[in-house]
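Reopening: structure tokens for the iron/sulfur cluster complex, inputs below.
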Amino acid sequence: MKIVVMLKTLLFNLLKGPVTRKYPYEERPPFPGERGVILMPDESKCIYCGICARKCPSNALTVTRTPEKEWKYERFRCILCGACVEACPKKCLEFGDRKK
Ligand code: SF4
Ligand code: SF4
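Re-run output (same inputs, fresh job):
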């Protein structure tokens, strides 16, 4: 009896095809309501105050003023909490499409 169940499972899996995707050729569409990534569409608005980096709970943001002004975002550290977007005094951060 067990052999019948096993053969049924085997045939089902052979006919169904792979359950995985051929990433990166085939990408999964984002889930509805996904927040995406943090974007700074207009970097000229940033005053490099560093508030966003201080509010970030996962240290995904780094802001430096010297030797040169730099705002850095590490996407894979980000937990998409939105604290930086809320805290930015210049409102230059926003959630956006991760493909941008
Ligand atoms: S809080 Fe806003 S203005 Fe300040 S460094 Fe971050 S992005 Fe720039
Ligand atoms: S969304 Fe949260 S975790 Fe991501 S960069 Fe902003 S403060 Fe940090």
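The domain at 2-96 is CATH 3.30.70.20 (Alpha-Beta Plaits). The helical segments are 2-16, 51-55, 83-87. Marking as resolved unless the reporter disagrees.
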